[in-house]
Design a protein that fits this description.
CATH architecture of the domain at 2-85 and 155-231: 3-Layer(aba) Sandwich
Low-confidence stretches: none
Strand content: 25-35%
Distance between the termini: 34 Å
Radius of gyration: 17 Å
Number of helices: 10
Largest sheet: 6 strands, mixed
Mean pLDDT: 93
Number of strands: 10
Helix content: 25-40%
CATH topology of the domain at 2-85 and 155-231: Rossmann fold
CATH class of the domain at 2-85 and 155-231: Alpha Beta
Shape: globular
Strand order of the largest sheet: 6-7-8-3-9-10
Structural class: alpha/beta
Length: 234
């Protein structure tokens, strides 16, 4: 479904990604783990068009998207939940979710997906008229994910969904991620909490200083001595 081939990218003269290659197949949850500042967020931004690669190519369903505008990539059914959630704080929960469907014209389909989001995130169903800025961190994360799902993505990019959340809330968020995947959405997950990420994903990539250094099944990475020592606190 997604192929990233030898992609390099950065910010001005600062090179962050150095010939990164990875793939995501339909139906998978794939996670990208690594320390802060190694290029995980930059990878997602480059895939979703927020950052233009300086080298290499990105393909989504065999179509090259490397030079495509972000809104055109969303129209291809690829959505990005950014680090920090970025909900619209002065809009209500309902209005935030409606913003996620801005590219759609099928009103019955939008209503059906809105009902699906309410069912997936029952805490949001109780707060539909509440402004997003007054929600807890976990609720804002749910809202950001729900908003992305309103665009009917086939591939969802999730950047640090556990950031700033209490451990119990994190477990709930990751159960929802698994449920979204079971409902048919493929997921590429960037996550600082390597333990929970690898227990959620099917496959994983390990990134260091802008390069992919390891790739394997999530189960194998959980047992890898290098990964356990560097990222699992063992």
């Amino acid at each position: 479904m997604l192929r990233v081939e030898n992609v390099s990218a950065g910010y001005g003269s600062i090179k962050v990604l150095k010939q990164v290659s990875l793939s995501v197949s339909e139906g998978e949850i794939v996670t990208l783990i690594g320390s802060n500042g190694v290029g995980k967020t930059t990878t997602l931004k480059t895939i979703s068009g927020l950052l233009r690669p300086t080298g290499g190519k990105i393909y989504f369903r065999s179509e090259e998207i490397s030079k495509m505008a972000p809104h055109k990539i969303v129209e291809m059914d690829l959505s990005h939940v950014p680090e920090g959630r970025n909900v619209f704080p002065r809009l209500s929960v309902k209005e935030n979710l409606e913003m996620g469907a801005y590219i759609r014209k099928d009103k019955p389909g939008i209503e059906k997906d809105y009902a699906m989001v309410m069912e997936t995130f029952p805490q949001l169903a109780q707060r539909q008229k509440q402004t997003a800025g007054t929600l807890s961190g976990g609720e804002q994360q749910m809202l950001a994910m729900g908003r992305a799902l309103m665009s009917q993505p086939d591939l969802l990019l999730l950047d640090e969904p556990s950031m700033g959340l209490a451990p119990l809330v994190v477990l709930g968020i990751f159960e929802i991620i698994k449920e979204v995947n079971r409902q048919g959405t493929t997921i590429l997950l960037v996550e600082q909490n390597a333990q929970v990420a690898l227990r959620t994903a099917h496959r994983g990539y390990v990134m260091e200083t802008g390069r992919i250094i390891l790739e394997d099944s999530a189960e194998a990475l959980l047992q890898d001595d290098q990964v356990r020592k560097a990222y699992l606190g063992e």
